[in-house]
Amino acid sequence: MSALRPLFVVAGIGRAAGTGAAAARRFSKEGYSVALIARGEDSLNALSDEIKKGGGEAAPYCIPSYSADDITSAFTSISAQFPNSHYALRAALFNVGYAVWKPFLEVTAAEVQESLSTSVAAAFAFSRSAILKFKENKLDAENPKRGTLIFTGATASTRGNKMTSSFSSGKFGARALSQSLAKEFGKDGIHVAHAIIDGQIMTGAALERSRDQPLSGLSPESIAQAYMYLANQEKSAWTWELDLRPAQEQW
């Protein structure tokens, strides 16, 4: 029987230029098939087509929201398109957040709810679907771990600030979830990791503003490389939390 092809699922690709998209490209180059989950249909299709034109295998799954039902539905579609007879989910990335940068008294109840729904409730749903798929994988000499679940965090995951009361609340929750899952499922051969992205990610307007200082932020490709490192770690030395920042970042 031929070996099952590894599958990588990523939720959150933005405009196909940031961390989620870079991770999708990197995992594809390493031989993974890629399932892309996001709300922006145009970006999803563009990234999927790009990966396929480069010789990889990818499929887009556009969802109307990051609700538990929509994420579960996306995983159901992924399981149908990438069946266990030919594929095994080996890595999953939750790269979703809802940023609100406002003084506390200007934050609305709706913004707080959206932040918690996106960063915490959606993370629960994504994690549940990924872990259930990981548990279907057998442990053997060739595959000593069932899979790797990675969360993209931020400076706000560990430190609140004047304008981040809502954003930090959601990010703190996702970090706590990742730590809880790492402790609960490590014994089952499931590696859970949380990455603190401590600095500006160099995409879009940030990249334009920093043309004279190309090392002033984090490269999405460098973050993706770190995620691949996490996925390839041996069971004897797993990382739960990894913090990434540019060399000149003040911290």
TrEMBL record:
Transmembrane segments: none annotated. Gene3D superfamilies: NAD(P)-binding Rossmann-like Domain. This is NAD-P-binding protein.
